[in-house]
């Protein structure tokens, strides 16, 4: 019987969970101290937003804000504090972090919950490589805080203190799936669906888009092989899979996006941030068009966010799943074990 099928508030169940929860608190304290030591400012971002985010496959919780005249205005619980943090960068903050509860619908597995804690941080005028280094520092910090050099999950192990494996998405697809991903992108990064379908290691349907096939190969063949033995930094995502990231100056087919993996579990997603409001609008509209075709809904654009991008300095930032990091560091078997009041 899993935690979600029981009552976490029963004393005997809480007693089993309490060591994981105390470990979580220790890691949170260490993270806050780590950022404060580097002169970061902690931002407490509001969850109620005009737009929850504009990625096609993210699903939000909607509600109505009732004004003093009784009129309803649609609002959403944010899927990330990203828009708010970037507005603060536009306002003049240079180094900030946020520990925010975020909300994503249609997500419930051993590593997904509908409400979880996201650690996000941003460095103005910093390189993409600077936040990669930050990410590795925080993973190692969580391990040293709990005095462990061993992450494990579902039979996979990882030494967080070891030097990270740096692996491009293109190389990972060749190595783990036999797919030459860059051959399916033209010189400007436009994807060729049929070229990827021909290389797919499994049958694809006529309705599967390039993005569908890419995601399926990533989840089934690539991700389970990442972060085994040591942390993997998977970087240089195809530009069409990085809606909020800058295009790489070295290759327009890929973007300044990376993800960190340990024990086959994705821990963090980071970018060299896109600051062109016109390009960002174009990408958001394209993603919402796709969302409407796939799911029959679309989310509004945050016009304040797009206006703020014009004032925002070049920056790099990362979103890290705090609960997943604690789960691995504390050797828990499910994300529910490290959340104080998990949703049933």
User: How helix-rich are the residues, as a percent range?
Assistant: 25-40%
Order of helices and strands: HEEEEHEEHEEEHHHEEEEHHEH
Shape: globular
Number of helices: 9
Radius of gyration: 20 Å
The overall pLDDT, averaged over residues, is 95
Low-confidence stretches: none
Q: Strand sequence of the main sheet, in spatial order? A: 1-5-6-14-13-12-11-9
Total strand count, please? 14
Q: What is the CA-CA span between the terminal residues?
A: 13 Å
**From the helix content, strand content and strand pairing, which structural class follows?**
alpha+beta
Largest sheet: 8 strands, mixed
Please describe the topology of this protein.
Blueprint: H1 11-37, E1 41-42, E2 48-49, E3 61-66, E4 72-77, H2 82-91, E5 95-103, E6 115-124, H3 128-145, E7 151-153, E8 156-159, E9 165-168, H4 169-177, H5 193-199, H6 210-222, E10 229-230, E11 232-235, E12 257-262, E13 265-272, H7 277-295, H8 303-309, E14 315-321, H9 322-329
Parallel strand pairs: 1-5, 8-10, 9-11
Antiparallel strand pairs: 2-4, 3-4, 5-6, 6-14, 7-8, 11-12, 12-13, 13-14
Helix pairs in contact: 1-3, 1-9, 2-8, 4-6, 5-6, 7-8
What do these coordinates show?
The protein contains nine helices and 14 strands. It is an alpha+beta fold and 344 residues long. The model has no long low-confidence stretch (mean pLDDT 95). It starts with 10 loop residues before the first helix and ends in a 15-residue tail after the last helix. The strands form three sheets. The chain has an eight-stranded mixed β-sheet with strand order 1-5-6-14-13-12-11-9, sandwiched between helices. It has a three-stranded antiparallel β-sheet with strand order 2-4-3, with no helix packed on it. Strands 7-8-10 form a three-stranded mixed β-sheet, with no helix packed on it. The longest helix has 27 residues, at 11-37. Helix content is 34%, strand content 21%.
């Amino acid at each position: 019987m899993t935690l979600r099928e029981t009552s976490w508030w029963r004393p005997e169940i809480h007693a089993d969970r309490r060591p994981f929860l105390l470990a979580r608190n220790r890691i949170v304290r260490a993270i806050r101290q780590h950022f404060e030591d580097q002169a970061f400012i902690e931002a407490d971002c509001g969850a109620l937003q005009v737009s929850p985010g504009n990625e096609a496959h993210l699903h939000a919780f909607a509600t109505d804000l009732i004004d003093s005249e009784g009129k309803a205005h649609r609002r959403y619980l944010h899927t990330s504090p990203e828009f708010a943090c970037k507005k603060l960068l536009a306002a003049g903050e240079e180094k900030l972090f946020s520990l925010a509860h975020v909300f994503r619908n249609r997500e419930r597995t051993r590593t997904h919950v509908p409400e979880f804690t996201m650690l996000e941080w941003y460095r103005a005028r910093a390189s993409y490589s600077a936040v990669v280094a930050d990410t590795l520092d925080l993973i190692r910090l969580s391990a040293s805080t709990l005095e462990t050099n061993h992450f494990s999950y579902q039979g996979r192990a990882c030494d967080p203190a070891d030097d990270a494996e740096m692996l491009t998405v293109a190389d990972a697809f060749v190595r783990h799936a036999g797919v030459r991903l860059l051959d399916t992108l033209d010189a400007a990064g436009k994807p060729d669906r049929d070229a990827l379908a021909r290389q797919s290691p499994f049958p694809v349907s006529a309705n599967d888009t390039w993005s569908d096939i890419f995601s399926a190969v990533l989840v089934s063949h690539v991700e389970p092989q990442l972060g085994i033995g040591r942390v993997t930094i998977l970087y240089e995502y195809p530009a069409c899979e990085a809606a909020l990231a800058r295009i790489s100056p070295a290759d327009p087919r890929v973007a300044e996006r990376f993800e960190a993996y340990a024990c086959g579990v994705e821990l963090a997603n980071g970018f060299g941030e896109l600051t062109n409001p016109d390009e960002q609008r174009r990408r958001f509209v394209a993603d919402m068009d796709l969302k409407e075709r796939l799911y029959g809904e679309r989310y509004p654009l945050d016009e304040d966010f797009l206006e703020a991008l014009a004032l925002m300095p070049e920056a790099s930032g990362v979103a890290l799943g705090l609960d997943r990091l604690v789960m691995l560091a504390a050797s828990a078997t499910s994300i529910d074990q490290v959340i104080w009041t998990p949703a049933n």
